[in-house]
Amino acid sequence: MSPLSSTKSLIWGLPIFFVLLAGFLIYVNVRENILERSLRENHALTTGTVVEIDERGVKKRDRITYHYTYQGKAYAAVRWLFVPEEWKSIVPGRPLPVAVDTTDPDNSLLLLYRQDFEGFHLPYSDSLKYFVYPDER
Questions:
Q1: What is the mean pLDDT of each run of 10 residues along the chain (137 residues)?
Q2: Nearest 5°: CA angle at 45, between 67 and 50?
Q3: pTM higher than 0.85, yes or no?
Q4: Considering only CA atoms, which of 29, 91, 84, 90 is closest in space to residue 61?
């Protein structure tokens, strides 16, 4: 392969790569927005349990694995968010509310922070205030 043909390949290859990358990122963003909107419009509440909290360091967020049941079927999901160190021994095993998309039960959100509840126009749970924000008792 001559240097000229490899330069032409590079000139055509880079724009194609960036177009494909941009298309993929747009697809992921649009899909996330559709899933989030569907969850907010078609949600039901159930109870879930945090199984594991892994410190992954992705943007200083932890990976929370939780299980929940909806209409008799068990599901597992993951949520990435910051978990204060003092919660890491309290949260696992404790029953917590989970919003489940009634049209797609695999689409869910573990409700832990006050803003999670506000996003669904739900009152913040008194039991969560007790162990999550002990200064608000």
A1: 58 73 68 74 92 77 92 94 80 89 92 85 74 50
A2: 25
A3: no
A4: 84
